[in-house]
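About this split. The held-out portion is used to measure sequence recovery: a designer receives only the structure tokens and must propose an amino acid at every position. Recovery is the fraction of positions where the proposal matches the reference. Here is one held-out target exactly as it appears in the evaluation file.
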């Protein structure tokens, strides 16, 4: 089963924007495409809006509700149509492992969408596109990212790690949830969690330890939601160094002094910013092949996503 990713149709190159154009992302259409199955959606076209079409915007009405209206004639209100479409579509998206949305769009934007008053004045407030707001509320665990933010290497790497972790979790539970499966999954993600958030690493560890206190459905939702929230935090160089040193400890009794010194030096060079993360990780993997350790071999930290994406730096 492929990794299914929802995506704004215009980001894949479909000419469905209000001006008849697109916002094709090279990363999405070339690098990521061979590794995932896209589910393209253009909410505006789906509710019957033409291409091209007059632009729309988010607007506060007199009751301080956010409405989706036409920019030139705000008496044309598309809010209920969009909410109705989204409510019907959302149940069909339960098997997605991530979603890439078009930035700044009044329907799809994830953040920083402009908000106006009835006179067309920019209120200086930030909102979420109407479609994406409903999506994120319905699936609070779903990794969502904007096309523009994927131009940032750190944000891109973080998002990709999240979607493949989400997919891994979904696959682990595809034949039914059990505490045993949850324990096995959590065990594989301990070092990846530690890199993103030591606090969440401890919190999720407690949640798994107390798993029998929860109803299965509640436990599933809480674990996956907290896992995805934790992984949204960018793993810092300091936190990666901490993980590398933990991993190094597994080899202290088997490596000869020269190899121990080499590994320590490489980790320290990474800590100081002289080499990329890939350097010490590759050396650790080399030692892991020489001295197999089942617990380490299953750790997602060593391969959080397909290697061909070339994102680890």
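Reference sequence for scoring:
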């Amino acid at each position: 089963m492929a990794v299914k990713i929802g995506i704004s149709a215009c980001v894949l190159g479909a000419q469905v924007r209000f001006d008849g154009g697109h916002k094709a992302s090279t990363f999405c259409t070339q690098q990521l495409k061979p590794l995932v199955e896209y589910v393209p959606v253009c909410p505006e076209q789906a509710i019957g809006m033409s291409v091209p079409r007059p632009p729309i915007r988010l607007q506060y009405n007199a009751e301080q509700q956010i409405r989706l209206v036409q920019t030139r004639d705000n008496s044309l209100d598309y809010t209920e149509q969009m909410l109705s479409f989204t409510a019907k579509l959302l149940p069909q998206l339960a098997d997605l492992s991530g979603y890439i949305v078009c930035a700044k769009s009044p329907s799809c934007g994830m953040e920083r969408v402009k908000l106006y008053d009835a006179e067309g004045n920019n209120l200086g407030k930030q909102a979420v596109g109407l479609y994406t707001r409903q999506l994120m509320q319905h699936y609070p665990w779903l990794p969502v990212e904007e096309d523009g933010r994927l131009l940032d290497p750190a944000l891109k790497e973080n998002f990709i790690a999240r979607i493949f972790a989400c997919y891994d979790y979904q696959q682990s539970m595809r034949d039914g949830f059990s505490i045993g499966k949850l324990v096995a999954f959590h065990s594989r993600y301990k070092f990846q969690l530690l890199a993103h958030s030591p606090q969440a690493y401890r919190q999720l560890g407690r949640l798994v330890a107390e798993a029998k206190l929860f109803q299965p459905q509640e436990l599933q939702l809480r674990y996956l939601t907290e896992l995805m929230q934790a992984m949204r935090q960018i793993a810092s160089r300091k936190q990666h160094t901490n993980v590398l040193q933990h991993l190094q400890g597994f080899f202290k009794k088997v490596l000869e002094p020269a190899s121990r010194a080499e590994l320590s030096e490489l980790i320290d060079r990474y800590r100081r910013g002289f080499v990329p993360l890939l350097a010490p990780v590759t050396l650790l993997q080399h030692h892991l092949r020489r001295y197999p350790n089942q617990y380490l071999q299953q750790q997602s930290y060593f391969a959080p996503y397909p290697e061909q994406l070339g994102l680890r730096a």
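Annotator remark: The chain has a mean pLDDT of 97.
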